[in-house]
Design goal:
Helix content is 19%, strand content 18%. It is built from four helices and 13 strands. 28% of the residues are buried. Bound molecules: 2-acetamido-2-deoxy-beta-D-glucopyranose (3 copies). InterPro entries: Leu-rich_rpt, LRR_dom_sf, Plant_RL_S/T_kinase.
């Protein structure tokens, strides 16, 4: 029994160190872990990540490991997989995780467009996709995310224009879009973002004037437009 346990913990350790350094750090040997060994082994976070992000819609509560996937009951509320070497295109199925409040896929190697279906994530408060290789334009429909507070898309290859109805994201506090290839002008409805604190459009190809309506932004602390 003891040997079996040690062996299974050993193989768990090996598979985890292959999967993720952070697992290794936070992994504590615990008596209760014995029961969970099989489950965890079968459902590595990598598999959950691939299934949820790239399309198989696994969405089982065995993805709720509380390190990379936080859940309320069986609903996924947070996906935290920054700096995980994830590559490929985000699947449209991501829009099905309607309970999602935080999506942190920053510092990976994601390519392709931002999925249109992202506008279905009506509870989303934090969207961190900075430091990737995303391209295409930011879908106009992103402005349906009226609960969104932090939109961090800097350091990508995004092009096209700013979403037309930017100003509808009433809860936005941080809008960081620097170092992309976004063109066109800043929509004047940006003046409706009454909670905005930080705006960065640094290192893009915007033109036109800074809308006068931005003078209404009383919460604004930092503005980087050049
Ligand atoms: C884990 O995988 C093994 C072998 O592939 C299988 O026998 C077992 O039923 C699986 N366990 C769970 C909880 O899915
Ligand atoms: C998940 O999303 C895809 C693409 O948006 C859609 O075709 C599919 O019907 C959705 N599945 C469920 C279970 O909602
Ligand atoms: C998101 O990922 C970044 C690293 O890219 C990390 O510094 C940050 O703490 C993460 N934030 C959350 C809320 O997960």
């Amino acid at each position: 029994m003891q040997i079996k346990k040690i062996l299974s913990l050993f193989s768990l350790y090996v598979s985890f160190s292959l999967i993720s350094k952070s697992y290794q750090q936070s992994f504590e040997i615990d008596d209760e872990i014995d029961d969970e060994v099989e489950d965890i082994d079968n459902n590595s976070h990598q598999q959950c990540a691939n299934d949820i992000i790239f399309g198989n819609q696994l969405m089982k509560n065995d993805c709720c490991d509380n390190l990379h996937f936080k859940c309320q009951d069986t609903d996924i509320t947070e996906i935290i997989l920054q700096n995980n070497e994830l590559s490929g295109k985000l699947s449209e199925t991501i829009g099905n995780i309607s309970s999602l409040e935080l999506l942190n896929l920053s510092s990976n190697k994601l390519t392709g467009n931002l999925p249109e279906s992202i506008n279905k994530l009506q509870k989303l408060k934090t969207l961190y996709l900075y430091d990737n290789e995303l391209s295409g334009s930011i879908p106009d429909s992103i402005s349906k995310l009226t609960e969104l507070e932090k939109l961090y898309l800097y350091n990508n290859q995004l092009s096209g224009k700013l979403p037309k109805s930017l100003g509808e994201m009433h809860h936005l506090t941080h809008l960081l879009l620097g170092n992309n290839k976004i063109k066109g002008n800043i929509p004047s409805n940006i003046g409706l973002l009454q909670n905005i604190k930080v705006i960065s459009f640094l290192k893009n190809s915007l033109d036109g004037e800074i809308p006068k309506t931005m003078g209404n932004l009383e919460s604004l602390e930092s503005l980087y437009v050049l």
